[in-house]
Design a protein that fits this description.
heterodimer, A: mainly beta, seven-stranded mixed β-sheet, four-stranded antiparallel β-sheet, 11 strands, B: mainly beta, 51% strand
């Protein structure tokens, strides 16, 4: 079955760079797209970006200059790197499969990882 | 960027009630809207995609409607397990989530 699992450092110092890994199983990254979504404590969801099945990427315009998403298809892993971290980047970070149902307009996040909490603090 | 406004932000209802949650887009998003349910401490779960299509395994008491800028999620008969926060999500352009509606039992 399809599974995703995020991993990361837990604690990052302000101004440093965050590196997260999403390890997927039950699907191929060459035919599936994966997004990163984050959620600050007690707040709503924010779409961060996507790496498409063809390896192309799109990012949230509010953070695109700090964010990079890449992948290693042989290891079934998707990576997030975000620089210049501030306390407002403290959040639960989720990866999710971004799936297109057939050839129509149906795109959705159907499988999610459990999330990894990142705290930005000195 | 397209802004998504959900109302109310908090809704209290009783078991068996018909519940309606609203989501308004700042510009036309046609029907490119999904609904997610998030229970405390869990990842969000897909309920409805493309405005009205029920995801596999989701109870039929959930339904979605709307088009353009105004959308609703309806629960026909509220159950205790429906206590959660509900998010709308538009994917017409520059994908964005609404701020959520927290649904609690009265």
């Amino acid at each position: 079955q399809v599974q995703l699992k995020e991993s990361g450092p837990g604690l990052v110092q302000p101004s440093q760079t965050l590196s997260l890994t999403c390890t997927v199983s039950g699907l191929s990254l060459t035919s599936n797209s994966v997004s990163w979504i984050r959620q600050p404590p007690g707040k709503g969801l924010e779409w961060m970006g996507v790496i498409w099945s063809n390896g192309g990427t799109d990012y949230n315009s509010a953070i695109k200059f700090r964010l990079s998403i890449s992948r290693d298809t042989s290891r079934s892993q998707v990576f997030l790197r975000m620089n210049s971290l501030q306390t407002e980047d403290t959040a639960m970070y989720f990866c999710a499969r971004y799936y297109r149902d057939g050839y129509g307009p149906n795109w959705y996040f159907d499988f999610w990882g459990p999330g990894t909490m990142v705290t930005v603090s000195s | 960027d397209i802004q998504m406004t959900q109302s109310p932000s908090l809704l209290s209802a009783s078991v068996g009630d018909r519940v309606t949650l609203s989501c308004n887009a700042s510009q036309n998003i046609y029907k490119y809207l999904n609904w997610y349910q998030q229970k405390l401490g869990e990842a969000p779960k897909l309920l409805i995609y493309y405005t009205y299509t029920l995801q596999t395994g989701i109870p039929s008491r959930f339904s979605g409607s709307g088009s353009g800028t105004d959308f609703t999620l309806t629960i026909s008969s509220l159950q205790p397990e429906d206590v959660a926060t509900y998010y709308c999500y538009q994917y017409n352009s520059g994908p964005t989530f609404g701020a959520g509606t927290k649904l609690e039992l009265k």
